[in-house]
Amino acid sequence: xxxxxxxxxxxxxxxxxLLLVAxxxxxxxxxxxxxxxxxxxxxxxxxxxxxxxxxxxxxARVLLDIRLPRVLLVALVGGVLALAGASYQGVFRNPLADxxxxxxxxxxxxxATLVIAxxxxxxxxxxxxxxxxxxxxxxxxxxxxxxxxxAGRGQSGSATLLLAGVAVSxxxxxxxxxxxxxxxxxxxxxxxxxxxxxxxxxWPQLVMVLPYMAVSTVVMLASARALxxxxxxxxxxxxxxxxxxxxxxxxxxAASLGTAAAVAVSGLIGFVGLxxxxxxxxxxxxxxxxxxxxxxxGGAAFLVLADLLARxxxxxxxxxxxxxxxxxxxxxxxxxxxxxxxxx
Length: 344
Known about the structure:
This protein is mostly helical. It contains 14 helices and no strands.
């Protein structure tokens, strides 16, 4: 047990250090380069610690008003998507499960498309698109869970939920396509959101999603031990005092809530919830008490670096972050399938 705890602690330290380095690099690179020492001095100065020379007024504004909120929001989105992916994989005992499995992506896409087509001006300080995407994602998950439970005659089994998610996603995607065809003038904006967009990240968006992400993260991390027990099978888990249906429902709700919050501010960003948990399992072992927290940190670092690449590779232009994660994630995941056949 001591060896396992040491391995878990080492994995957490490595992932945390990787995230810290990724955040420092991402905040220092961009159209306006910022020195790392100046960044640290400026941040410390804001909490009353005077060390080194802070950035000048203009550079400080770039850091605090533009770059830092974006990097922190990207880290939150990446961490939650990776954590949700690992949680879904634990619930379904399927290493190919991902955060968009139960209709979250399709519901969010439909909600965003409806807003872009019918409410282009929006209302409120954040506009209607994030709110509509959030509501749409939760609606998609609720429909899939309800259909899966009804089809399973009250029993929300893994296979039934997977099939229900596919059915609901297909239906919602068809509705989205119907709306797009009726409003072709908005196609560019719709596809821009679908490919992932974090260029407008700011502090109000961060504050908006933080409570939802915090609650979902706490629930998923607290379920790690139960997911380890659930991995041996429902019957065995029941004999060990774990209630599979209750665990499955709690984790699904938490993962879907976190995914909906992430999608609301970032658009659809694929592969984070697939690739990162696979890497963590191969490097740190398969226990969910290790996989979940390390995936949280690793997913945050992964998306921060992907976002850095998205906004610098064709500077002063910017790639959609979903394109970057697809370019990185698709070949990597294909390699994983070739080597391990998708096994966890």
